[in-house]
Write a structure and sequence with these properties.
This protein is mainly alpha-helical. The protein is built from 4 helices and 2 strands. It starts with a helix and ends in a 6-residue tail after the last helix.
């Protein structure tokens, strides 16, 4: 084999290893801050959205507030998962698969919106109660709609 062919084979092999290793790590990358959205829910077509997507900061919750991953991420029996930064985690919609609320069972936890609101808002209210607000709506953690769902200015 000539030197040119050997260099070509080594280069191609190197790129293949690089791309393969990136795909292995891709699932484990957790952004410090991300927009809470799910591709499964269709975007509005008749009118533009009225609110920005909610932004969540993993870094603030995990590092600044010292909240463990398992306080939000749980298994099918609602038991906290023992996760560490970098572990691969399923998206909420992988288990909470219902995309629309049922009029007969408005609090169905399998509805993605209910699961996310229940998880976030209940924790925020608890935090605010510990900070002195009896109802848990006012305090350091946003617990009302307008605090997380920011209106888009026209």
């Amino acid at each position: 084999m000539t030197i040119k062919k050997s260099l070509f084979v080594i280069t191609i092999t190197g790129f293949a290893i690089l791309f393969a290793s990136q795909s292995i790590w891709a699932g484990a990358i957790v952004k410090d801050t991300f927009k809470v959205e799910t591709k499964e829910i269709k975007k509005r077509k008749k009118a533009p959205p009225k609110f920005k997507l909610v932004e969540l900061s993993h870094k603030k919750h995990n590092i600044d507030y010292k909240i463990s991953c398992g306080e939000c991420h749980h298994d099918k029996n609602n038991k906290p998962l023992d996760l560490k930064i970098g572990d691969d985690v399923q998206r909420c919609v992988e288990c909470h698969t219902k995309l629309k609320k049922d009029k007969k069972n408005k609090k169905d936890i399998m509805v993605i919106e209910n699961a996310m609101h229940g998880n976030c808002v209940s924790c925020h209210k608890e935090t605010n109660k510990k900070a002195g607000d009896k109802k848990g709506l006012k305090g350091p953690a946003p617990a009302s709609c307008g605090k997380c769902h920011i209106k888009i200015k026209k």
